[in-house]
Amino acid sequence: MDMTSHEHDRTGDQASGGGHIPLRPDLLPCARSRDDLLDQVARGDAATLDAHQNHCVHCQAALAEFDRLWSPMRELAAEQVDTPEAGIDAALAQIRGAVEDSDYATLRGPQGTTRVAARVVVVAARHSAQEVPGVRVALSRDLAGSQQDTDSQVHVGVAGTSAVIEIILAADYGRSLHQLAADVRRAVTDRVRHLTDLDPAQVIVIIDDVLD
Asked: CA–CA separation, 120 vs 89, rounded Å?
């Protein structure tokens, strides 16, 4: 998936990281089915996003993590190796378990498991973006023009070791917006990787205003 910056209207149902309870355990916070996303990856369509997925950090994070975990199965299929049904079932169980809690990323190691809240990624992304010259994250606004808390301008989806981050910001007038977005993307990616060991599969930068 491309890491691109956007300047567009936002729908009101986009969720930020943390504090969301899926309607059912098999659903993401956006109410999309995890199994449907896994089927999408198994078909080889992880990068083909529908209208909802194109703006949903939860779907994008789940697709990125499913795609990473499904890679060994693709390699076996390419080599035309017969995989025992029990092996396939075990792989599917592991993949589904990667996104069993959409409020936490999961890092597994030989000595135990570390769970990182999506809220932590929100804070790391916000601080790193604010440190980029030319960014005014705190002055970003919603479509109605009202001032909002800065964390409402950072939206995060986590799944397993993958994270998708969307940042809405205002920029200083006169800056190259394309370069500013690239600087923000690099700063956020580096900080999140350093602090959490998560892989930012995508960092979306939305510039919704320029300020004198």
From this structure: 33
Classify strands 135-136 and 112-117 as parallel, antiparallel or unpaired: unpaired
Q: How far apart are CA 117 and CA 16, in angstroms?
A: 12
φ, ψ dihedrals at 78, nearest 5°: -65, -35
**Residue 31 DSSP symbol:** S
- Helices 118-130 and 177-196 pack at an angle, to 10 degrees, of 140
Give dist(CA 163, CA 180) in Å, integer: 21
Q: How high is the mean pLDDT of the chain?
A: 80
What is the CA 171 to chain-centroid distance, rounded? Answer: 23
Q: What is d(CA 91, CA 49) in angstroms, rounded to the nearest whole number?
A: 24
pLDDT at 151 over 60: no
- Which letter does DSSP use for residue 26 in this model? T
Domain locations along the chain: 5-12+115-211, 34-102
5-12+115-211 maps to which CATH number? 3.30.70.1350
121 close to 17: Cβ distance less than 8 angstroms: yes
How many angstroms separate the CA atoms of 207 and 140, rounded? Answer: 9
Q: Whole-structure pTM over 0.85, yes or no?
A: no
In angstroms, rounded to a whole number, what is the distance separating the alpha carbons of residues 41 and 189? 24
